[in-house]
Amino acid sequence: MTSLAASLKKQLALALEENERHATSLDTVVAALNETLTALEKHEPEFVAAMRIRFGVAPASPVSGVTGEA
Which residues pair with 60 in a beta bridge? Predict the structure, then answer.
């Protein structure tokens, strides 16, 4: 049973590492989406507003670049 427990602990650790990589990748995609929407906003404000509502992305703060919740 000890080898089973060790194997399960190792699998859990690997799964947690993979989860962290996915979370980091998702954060990168969200930041890129927000940056793209910000650049597009002056040309297509209605479209950008609709996309922000659809994806729940608040506009970036012009000072900090930090987003809030929509």
Answer: 67
CA separation (Å) from 35 to 21, 30, 31, 43, 57?
Answer: 21, 9, 6, 14, 11
| pTM score | 0.63
Q: Residue type at 5?
A: A
The full 3-state SS of 26-49, as one line of letters, equals HHHHHHHHHHHHHHHCCCCHHHHH
Residue with tokens 């793209």: 36
Question: 67: which strand partners?
Answer: 60
In eight-state DSSP terms, residue 61 is: P
Cβ atoms of 67 and 59 within 8 Å: the answer is: yes
Average model confidence (pLDDT) across the chain = 86
List 69's β-bridge partners, or say none: 57
